[in-house]
Structures
1.
Amino acid sequence: MIHAEVCDTIKVVFKNNSDELDYSVHPHGVFYDKDSEGAEYNDGTSANTKVDGIVAPGQTHTYNWSVPQRAGPEPNVPSSIIWRYHSHVDSPMDTNSGLVGPIVVTSNGMVDLNGRPIGVYREMVSLFAVSDENSSHYLCANLEKFTDETCDNEELVGNDDFAESNLMHGINGFVYGNLPGQTVQKGEHVRWYLIGMETEVDLHTPHWHENTVLWNGMRVDVMELMPASLKTVDFIPDNIGTWMFHCHVNYHITAGMMSLFKVI
Ligand SMILES: [Cu+2]
């Protein structure tokens, strides 16, 4: 999780520890030159000069992203908003392999000594994504690691049920209520950031049980999230208990897009 204040410059030193694949760090919302974009164009520039921030295995690259006013919140909205970074060499496969993370930008002068928004006691981030592990770089490696099968079994890899089983309807990559760490305290100011990702099945409706959140001047308990969209909401939990936080799309419920959060 990267925190920045408007007028900052974010500096990311990225070492690609993969064995054989190029990766990058491509940010949303912030300001950058071509060498800090982390995205490949089919214009020949990357082959010669590596100016686009694509990083070969074992190599290191430094990205500089400045944070202008237009990367921060406007007045009358929460003092911080959510952006995202992800690998953008093969964007669909890279993100299906899990290479996604959050950037939080806070208004100028609204940041505490830890780089977090003043007055916000707890920040939560939830990534709603149907990770298509058939399109992960690590499908074959995972098969070999966790089963007795390999990708050489074409009958298996080409099987529709196998393919369906690899569509992981996750919140932060966890399914069926196994997501840890979602504990808040009654009466504290919680800022909850939502990230959508992936493809046309990723129409999500995060729903908090027994709580309401404030978004854009409205009080709601369900949000809309589209692929690659970003939302920032605030709430103050007022009822102690263990509550569901899940996607309200019927098929996504049965496929496991469920988690629990605790108010203590
Ligand atoms: Cu959903």
2.
Amino acid sequence: MPIYSHSQLSMYEGCPLKYKLRYRDKIKRDSESIEGFRGTMVHETLKKCYDNLKFTGVNTLSNLLTYYNKTWRGKWHDSISIMREELTQEDYRALGEKMIKAYYERYSPFDSDITIGTEMNINFSLDDETKYRITGFIDRLSRAQEDVHEIHDYKTSAYLPSQEDADSDRQLGLYHLGVQRKWPHTKNIRLIWHYLAFDTELISYRSPNTISNLVAATKRLIDEIESAQDFSPNESWLCEWCEYPDLCPLRKHFFKVETLAVNEYLNEPGVVLVNKYVALRNEAKKIDTDISKVKEAMFDYAIKEEVEAIKGSDYKARIRFDERLKFPGKNDAKRQQLEDVIREAAKWTDVSQLDTTSLAHIIENNLWSKDLIDKIMKYGIIEASSSVHISKLEDEEK
Ligand code: SF4
């Protein structure tokens, strides 16, 4: 079985297709987001900050910022993409600088702990048979007072998660286990996330019980990935940063028309079809509204004139006023009471029948045992169908 990292597992959870393209098909792309690039530059600078402590003592802030800016300029390349049009490369660089400055001012002279390693690679197995192997890089491992080991992770994102998120985070939970596997005598481990854009620390601990739940959940996820056949695309806000738009059925067409001149764009067959479909659908909506209005007028007319048929030039309209018995629907609060009355009267089987839509949902989402699903699937047939769903383009998709 391949070795898995937390980011690999997260990619599968976020979008199975992207995972497949990156890790199964091994399709490499040069493109990199500026957020990712800035993260790397900040990580490298903080690594230098602690690495130098061992040899030359405390760096000055000015030294570190010079290193950050020099590395930024040296490693910058043309395939770095800036998705947010209102921001420039300079805005991103300056924010990275601000993060380093805030970190420096908070922790200098960096003597509250002893650094054991930076960018430390850990490889370990979740099981004794070494079937489920995990790899990762700890940004910094340190030993603080009272023999507490600290796993530090630097985050440069513009999102500050909740304490609950930190307490259930898989990445540092796995690193906790990795450190314990590497140094079995290690008892107390503190997990620390440095949210640099917010100058904030999040701290969390893991009990043996949480670690064993994490191991079980991670093994289940690895099993799912290993047996996966269908790697569907999963559209989300992250698609804007995806490096495979040209290979994804949900983004391929966007990618194809993105660079077309306006006249070419408006004549592209896909664009023509969607525009035509939407125009017709809007026309149909208006016609439906007009039909409803005329229908209402005919009902009024029939009541007023006391007629049940109205003659037109080529057609006649037969008007009926019927009454239909209705009971509370599935989401109505009174539905349960109604069902109770029927059950109490032992008449449930007279009125109940299989809801095949719910059954299909249960089977498609594997909500019952495999045995039962296999039995039921002997009666199921897969019917091909097609549909068109129209929605407005988001601003960033235009
Ligand atoms: S564009 Fe979105 S849906 Fe398509 S592969 Fe990338 S992340 Fe997945």
